[in-house]
């Protein structure tokens, strides 16, 4: 009995001991975590203090305009500076809590004590939201004077626009969520970027939108039995497949199931219209696929990539170059609107349209408004979207006043009435799409 009882007792003690050890481990874990969190929040505040202690709180820069177009954030504003000094350099910067400064290319003028600044030289350059670390950033105006003195000013929101929630493109099945927030720290107004990792995009957020041109009772260009709307739909489905294979979340604006009677060029702004779908997708890039046609045969085929004015053309050029190389086709010979080989910027003649635009209280940034509606109307105020329903043929683009826009590229893959183009596209559409996929993959550094 005794030997039996002894081990039993021992066993009980060891259970008790084990229980205590577990409790202690849990307590240590909780305590450690709590201390860690406290340290985190203490250091965040300390670093915020360090950043805000260094800034001149006697005045703030006022933001008149801020825009997220594609993958970039840009701001424009002014500040009153009563300095007898000459200002040597002006830069908008994003400073993170580790003290790292990201300078953003800034243009400025300084007249009658008013310093006006803008990072909006090109609407798709500026602060690249895709390259930020998972931490907090503060947007500041940095002024440098000849005596090596540097002053920082915080930014106050004087626009009609509020905070923005931005999701980066999907890379390795992960995204970053960027809260672009206007806030105050001890009564100092500031613009901050809070960046966290997320494992999945919200249901209504996409990386890329593909827009197969035309559809329904709008066939687009025709050559014999071939219709533009059908060919570009096939291409779009192939492109969607390829982009999904590199991990991107893709929305297509039509899939061929649209009713021919109901779907036409005039309902592009309706609830299910391509402009509304694109704007609601929160996508960063839109690729619109088309085939050209030229009745007079004055152009001997080739690729044309259309992009908004005031854009950096790197991606447009990459798209055109890759298509020419991969699909063994040619750059279009068309000279009108040409910026580079295969890259085109076509704008509305504002002079002629000024009365219409004025009657619609048009308040665009640039006098250069994209001619192609899919590029213009998906960019919000960055591209001067202006369709407000005044024209009874079209419904209203409810996103025309948005300060968040999709960076849109319209690609004329070739000419449907030029046989070598049509044959090439019918035979090698997967190579045309491969060229587009590779351009996006390398330009945005996906995977
Ligand atoms: Zn077309």
Characterization of the model:
- It is a single chain.
- This protein has 447 residues and is of the alpha+beta class.
- The protein has two domains: 138 residues, Immunoglobulin-like, CATH 2.60.40; 236 residues, Aminopeptidase.
- Helices cover 29% and strands 28% of the residues.
- The strands form three sheets. Strands 1, 2, 3, 4, 5, 6, 7, 8, 9, 10, 11, 12 and 21 form a 13-stranded mixed beta sheet that branches. A seven-stranded mixed beta sheet has the order 16-13-17-22-18-20-19.
- A hairpin with a 2-residue loop joins strand 1 and strand 2.
- Helix 2 runs parallel beside helix 7 and helix 4 packs across helix 7.
- The radius of gyration is 28 Å and the shape is globular.
- It starts with a helix and ends with a helix.
- The N terminus is likely disordered.
- Zinc ion binds next to loops.
Features:
single chain; 447 residues; alpha+beta; Immunoglobulin-like; Aminopeptidase; 7 helices; 22 strands; 29% helix; 28% strand; disordered N terminus; binds zinc ion
Short synopsis of the structure:
The chain is α+β, with helices and mostly antiparallel strands. Helices cover about 30% and strands about 30% of the residues.
């Amino acid at each position: 009995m005794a030997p039996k009882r002894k081990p039993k007792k021992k066993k009980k003690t060891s259970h008790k001991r084990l229980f205590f050890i577990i409790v202690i481990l849990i307590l240590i874990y909780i305590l450690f975590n709590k201390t860690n969190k406290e340290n985190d929040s203490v250091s965040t505040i300390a670093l915020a203090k360090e950043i805000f202690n260094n800034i001149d709180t006697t005045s703030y820069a006022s933001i008149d305009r801020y825009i997220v177009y594609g993958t970039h954030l840009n701001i424009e504003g002014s500040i009153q500076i009563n300095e007898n000094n000459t200002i040597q350099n002006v830069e908008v910067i994003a400073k993170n809590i580790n003290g790292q400064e990201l300078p953003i290319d800034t243009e400025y003028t300084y007249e009658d004590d008013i310093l006006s600044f803008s990072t909006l030289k090109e609407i798709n350059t500026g602060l690249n939201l895709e390259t930020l670390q998972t931490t907090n950033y503060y947007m500041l105006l940095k002024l440098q004077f000849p005596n090596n003195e540097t002053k920082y000013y915080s930014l106050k929101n004087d626009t009609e626009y509020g905070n923005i929630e931005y999701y980066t493109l999907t890379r390795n099945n992960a995204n970053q969520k960027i809260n672009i927030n206007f806030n105050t720290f001890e009564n100092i107004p500031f613009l901050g970027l809070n960046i966290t990792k997320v494992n999945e995009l919200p249901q209504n957020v996409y990386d890329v939108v593909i827009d197969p041109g035309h559809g329904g009772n709008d066939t687009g260009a025709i050559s014999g039995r071939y219709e533009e709307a059908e060919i570009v739909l096939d291409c779009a489905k192939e492109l969607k497949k390829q982009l999904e294979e590199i991990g991107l979340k893709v929305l297509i604006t039509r899939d061929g199931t649209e009713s021919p009677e109901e779907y036409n060029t005039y309902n592009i702004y309706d609830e299910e219209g391509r402009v509304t779908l694109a704007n609601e997708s929160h996508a960063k890039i839109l690729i619109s696929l088309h085939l050209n046609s030229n009745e007079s045969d004055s152009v001997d085929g080739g690729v044309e990539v259309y992009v908004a004015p005031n854009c950096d053309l790197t991606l447009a050029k990459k798209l055109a170059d890759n298509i020419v190389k991969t699909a063994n086709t040619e750059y279009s010979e068309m000279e009108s609107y040409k910026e580079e080989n295969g890259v085109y910027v076509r704008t509305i003649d504002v002079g002629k349209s000024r009365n219409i635009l004025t009657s619609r209280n048009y308040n665009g940034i640039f006098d250069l408004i994209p001619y192609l509606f899919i590029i213009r109307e998906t960019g919000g105020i960055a591209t001067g979207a202006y369709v407000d329903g005044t024209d009874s043929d079209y419904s209203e683009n409810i996103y025309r006043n948005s300060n968040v826009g999709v960076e849109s590229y319209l690609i004329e893959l070739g000419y449907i009435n030029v046989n070598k183009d049509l044959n090439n596209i019918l035979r090698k559409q997967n190579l045309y799409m491969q060229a587009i996929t590779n351009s996006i993959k390398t330009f945005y550094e996906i995977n």
